[in-house]
Amino acid sequence: MKKVAIIGAGPAGIEAASILARNGVEVTLFEKSETPLKNLQDKAFLFPNFQSAQEIIDDLSGKLLTDRITTAFGVDIADVKWQGAEWKLVDSKEQTYVADAVLIATGYQVFDAHRKEELGYGIYKGVITSLDMEQMIKHGKILNANGDEPKRVTFLQCVGSRDEKSGNHYCSKICCVTAVKQAIEVRKQLPKCEASVFYMDLRMWGQGFEEMYRTAQEKYGVSFVRGRISEAAGTFDGRVQLKSEDTLMGLPLKMNTDLLVLMVGMEASCGTKVLGKACDISGDYGFIKSVNPHLYDNETGKPGLFAAGTCKRPMSVSDSINDARSAALAIKDYLDTIKIEN
Amino acid sequence: MKIHAYPYNDFVIPFLIGTVLLFAIIIFKYVKWIRRFSDEQRKVIRSNWYSWKIFPAIWEMIREGLIHVRIIKKNLLLGIMHQAFALGWFLLIVVGAIESRDAFFTMQHEQSIEYVRELQQQNGWHVYNTGEDKNPEYLNQRRYRVETEGGIARIEYKRPFYVGIFYRYFVHKAPASFRQHKAYSDLMDALLLYVFLGLTMAMVKIFWSKILGMRRTTKHTLVDRFAKFSLWMIFPMRLLAESVTACLYGNGGFFTQAVGNLFDPMIVRGLETSVWMLYSLMLGVFFVTMPFTRYMHIFTELLLIYFRKIGVTEGDKKTGYTYFELNACSRCGVCISGCPMDKVLENHEIQSVYLIRSLRNQERVSRLKMIADNCLMCDRCTVDCPVGIDLSSLRRMTRDKGKLDTTGNYEYLAKKQTPFNAIGRVAYFGGCMSHLTPGITESMEKIFNAAGQKYWYMDKLRTICCGRPLQQQGFLKQAEELRQKNTEMIEKSGSTMLVTSCPICYQSFKKEYNLNIPIMHHTEYIDMLIKQGRLKVRHDDRKVSYHDPCELGRGCGIYDEPREVLGAVTNLQKTRFQREKSVCCGFNLGNTKLSLEEQTAIRNASLQNLTSKPVDAIVTACPMCKKAFQHATNDYPVRDIAEVVAENLIN
Question: A199 lies in which domain range?
Fold first, then answer.
């Protein structure tokens, strides 16, 4: 039986593993942390249908319960090498594993908001990231720096994405709709709290997204301001003062808010960068480069080495899962060809 | 009866013409420039002309004009090359003059009629006698035989100034009692060899500049190259002329005699005056080209050093002093090697040497602007300049956008004025950039509180810029508006000291303002607090590297205080390019033309220097630098000194 190693137990890794297992392939699923679906666990609801993230976690975790899938959690794969007939994986403890094909699904990490110091993350308690907000929504405790219910929550788009200065020129794709989703959640949980979103332009690319954006304005009264926030400062009462420009009105803007939520963009994860470099398949910004985004998007140019999900570019959970399915098919095809050659 | 003996040959004419033209042009130019000094500069010159300041001035003129200590310290071989030309040639002239003076003194003393006869017949001296009636009876120049009437004759040896230059020709045979003759000729040969050493190095430098420690040398214009050629030819011609004479008369030193002995006297006999003519011609040509080429620096740099040392400074506008600066540049190219634009971006056109040349040659405005604008104003070249030209001011002046001035834009400033009673407090000016790095201002507030110092955070809510960004971009008038408002506000407040977190503001307050209270950057201030025992800090076990911000280090000379502070709270690692050699972070606010990609490339070079040894954090003392590095890397925390100290406060 052919063996496939999948690195990264996120939605993409698990989906690909389960499909391959169902197709008679023996899969080993490596994960750096002790539990799978780490990033997904930070989420409360998923856009656009506000489905609970926990449901998806449960469904995906269920797919691992097959004896064709061996899970190796807490194993940090540091290097992947082609050795004549098979791929050799080396972990950080120098242990080695072998496989006929390898799928890299090492995913993303969020931009470290400390790097945009002018926005005051880590300095003012009222400044949080979209991940912190997701946690608050999840636990139903949206609180300001003083532990009270906020009266105003402000979201700022494009923190660490579409940003020349931090070196990330690309669009992180999911933050626009995430902010809309979170603003709606804030208004649902705290009907008295104002919510506003500062944006450069809103990219409502997916099915149902535009409708969500409309609902946010019409039903939930979320206000959208076109302009970037240039700096944030703390006030004596623990709030945050923002300086911005409303570029539609053409006026400078100064306002106070209880919470400033920084919509941090997606960056290639550490593991993605390390493996991309080790296998020489690293593309722009440390993401993994596929051979061709149209027809060979899971192939890396090295026979038997595949990539799926957000290790290639920012993607939504659903896109990531779809990408994993196509990767599973590509791997299956590959395994069949080497079977014939043998 | 009196006999006059006068050394002259036609070959001195090119030298004489050259010398006369050289000094005429130079004096004409100097007078023109001095008349263009600003009133302020005149006042400084007048009041310091005879003050004690002239001693350090003269000392530096000797040190940098002749010995070239600054270049030697930076780069031994290059320094020796410059020294060989300057000091070597200078000594050749001085020792030559002394030698001829001594020889003539002996001749005069000897009063030997045979000797004067020999000079006339063999060396072609002009000898004529004058009667008591002062009616000179000019006698056949070359064929005249000196006769004495009744043995009474007084010989008067004339010593024109060029004798020192052509001494070996005019004195084939030293006067009998001139015993130092051999020593002098050996010494002169040694000096000539010394110049030859420099000459050889200069030639090597053309093809292989790295061996002289220069990554790149100046690209010279055709006129400059011609002048250089004539300069370089002077010394081989001198060697040739002296060797030929040594061959014929055996009056050379160890070197010229050795070379002379290689010649056949029969062949060179007829060539003697011709080779001396060549030597004189080279001198003349060089002298005439000198005021129009980079060699104008030879005299000008001495005057520049003098003016600078007695306190003359560059203003905002072109003045007479500017002309001295422009002409004091020898285009040595020392400013090229350190320039990050050259090193990282491979831009070899915009270095200060070319800025000065373009200004001097009055090149077209578009090119001037291109050169002036493509610069970070990091001052790396200014610290390298061996004669201390104020390169940044020259650049600012060229950037001057005075004509774009719009008036009446500053009315809002009046509304911004909020008089504040801060008597006895320290005024804290965070600066616009520090507002984008709130970590710094927060830490400073912590530090003030920990030291029990009452302070007035004057730009916490409303900020008037210090004016330096406008200044650096060439908006000089606009910058002045802002400065006036800030001065007014600070003076009215009654605060006793100004502390700023931003080296840009710091430099502005220090140099462009005229405040009557002490001004400190927070690195100095924290250092003072720790030394006074007002701030209790602990030492952690992090290893950090420190980035010298351009405006703080090269701009204001603050190198030690940050290091003292960091030494007190953490472990400071040395880096290869530090202190005045620090590489700009690429985001200096003096930049107007560089693209983000170019800035990023320079930043990465700077970052590489800071992280070449393993460190736990990068520390700097400027919000601009901090942001630059912060954006660059996930791998190292980037901290300001104030933050590192605030983290290590013992309450």
Answer: 113-266
Distance CA A242, CA A154 (A): 10
Beta bridge partners of A91: A77
B439 inside 8 A of chain A by CB: yes
Angle at B588 between CA B583 and CA B589, to 5 degrees: 165
End-to-end CA distance of chain A: 13
- Residues A162 and A215 grouped into a single domain: yes
Whether residue A44 sits in one domain with residue A15: yes
- Based on the fold, state whether residues B510 and B630 are members of the same structural domain: no
CA distances from B342 to B151, B337, B387, B548, B577 (A): 76, 7, 21, 20, 16
Residue B136: per-residue pLDDT: 44
Q: Which of A115, A120, A167 sits opposite B438 (nearest CB)?
A: A120
Per residue in B77-101, pLDDT tens? Answer: 889 999 999 999 999 999 999 999 9
Where among A242, A266, A290 does a domain terminate?
Answer: A266
- The token pair that represents B267 in the structure block: 């062949």
Q: Is the pLDDT of residue A301 over 50?
A: yes
Domain final residue, candidates A233, A266, A299? A266
Classify strands B136-137 and B126-130 as parallel, antiparallel or unpaired.
antiparallel
Is B630 within 8 Å of chain A by CB?
yes
Kindly state whether residues A62 and A173 are assigned to the same domain: no
Nearest residue on chain B to A123, alpha-carbon basis: B439
- Based on the domain organization, do A279 and A135 belong to the same domain? no
Token pair of B372 as six digits: 């002036």
0.80 exceeded by pTM? yes
Is the ipTM beyond the 0.85 threshold?
no
What's the pLDDT tens digit per position in B19-35? 999 999 999 999 999 99
